[in-house]
Design goal:
The chain has twelve helices and no strands. The longest helix is centred in the middle third of the chain and has 19 residues, at 87-105. With 222 residues, the protein is mostly helical. Helix content is 57%, strand content 0%. It has helices at 9-22, 34-44, 49-62, 66-70, 74-80, 87-105, 118-126, 133-142, 153-161, 170-180, 186-199, 218-221. It is globular and about 55 Å long. InterPro entries: DNA_glycosylase (IPR011257), HhH-GPD_domain (IPR003265), HhH_base_excis_C (IPR023170).
C-alpha cells in the first residue's frame, strides 16, 4: 500500500465522463422496494443473470405479497427459487430475514428503516442473513436513496485494473474507493463500472481492444 499512487479528482471525473459517453443507460433495473432489492441481490449470489431473473420472477409470481412469502417454509422457498443455485442456503436466509423483520416491525417490510440515519441502516442491514457490505450499500443506494458507493465485483475489477485499488478485503476497498471517487459521482460511477464490466472489462477474456478507457488502464499496459 505504501507505493500506491491514487488518481486525482480530475482523472476520476475524466474516466467517469468517458464511460458516460459510451453507456446511455442510467439504471441497472434495481428495485425501489428495499426488500425486493434484498431478494434480487441474494438470488444473484454465484448465479448468472438469467438464472437470477428467472428465480426472481418465479418468487414474485408464487408469492403475491411478502406476507405470503413469510408463511412459507424454507423447503417451499427453496423449490420456488431452485433455478438460482444454492437454493437451500438462499431459502434459509430469506426465511430467517422475513421472520426477523416480522418480529422487529410487526410486518414484513423494511420501510421503517428509511427514517433512520445512514450508519444505523447499514448496521441493521449487515445483521440480516446473507447481507454483506456490498449488498447493504446497494440496498441503501438503490432503494433508500443514500449517497453511498457499493464496491461490487465490477467496481473492484475496474478500479484494480486502473491501478486505483489494490485492497484485498471488501471493507478496505469500500473505504478507499469512497475516498477516491467524488461523492457526487458515487451512483454514476457504480452503474458505469457495472455496465463496462459486463460488456467490455470482463473478468475472463476482457475486450481491451474495445475499451474506451484503455489509456488509463494498468492491466492492458502490463
Amino acid at each position: 500500500m505504501q507505493n500506491q499512487v491514487y488518481p486525482t479528482d480530475k482523472t476520476v471525473r475524466t474516466v467517469c465522463s468517458i464511460l458516460q459517453s459510451q453507456y446511455l443507460i442510467s439504471s441497472l433495473g434495481n428495485k425501489s422496494n428495499p426488500l425486493d432489492e434484498y431478494l434480487y441481490i441474494l438470488l444473484s449470489l454465484r448465479t448468472h443473470e438469467k438464472g437470477t431473473k428467472s428465480a426472481y420472477r418465479a418468487f414474485k409470481k408464487h408469492y403475491p405479497s411478502w406476507s405470503a412469502a413469510e408463511k412459507a417454509s424454507p423447503m417451499e422457498l427453496s423449490k420456488v427459487i431452485t433455478c438460482a443455485g444454492l437454493s437451500k442456503q438462499k431459502a434459509n436466509n430469506i426465511y430467517k430475514t422475513l421472520k426477523y423483520l416480522k418480529s422487529e416491525f410487526g410486518s414484513v417490510s423494511m420501510a421503517k428503516l428509511k427514517n433512520l440515519p445512514k450508519d444505523e441502516v447499514e448496521r441493521y442491514l449487515l445483521h440480516l442473513p446473507g447481507v454483506g457490505l456490498k449488498s447493504a450499500k446497494c440496498i441503501m443506494m438503490f432503494s433508500f436513496g443514500f449517497n453511498v458507493l457499493p464496491v461490487d465485483v465490477h467496481v473492484f475489477r475496474l478500479s484494480s485494473r486502473l491501478g486505483w485499488c489494490n485492497c484485498g478485503k471488501s471493507k478496505d476497498a469500500h473505504v478507499l474507493m469512497s475516498k477516491i471517487v467524488p461523492k457526487d459521482l458515487y451512483y454514476s460511477f457504480h452503474v458505469l463500472c457495472v455496465q463496462h464490466g459486463r460488456n467490455v472489462c470482463r473478468g475472463h477474456h476482457p475486450s481491451c481492444e474495445y475499451c474506451c478507457i484503455s489509456g488509463y488502464c494498468k492491466f492492458q499496459k502490463s
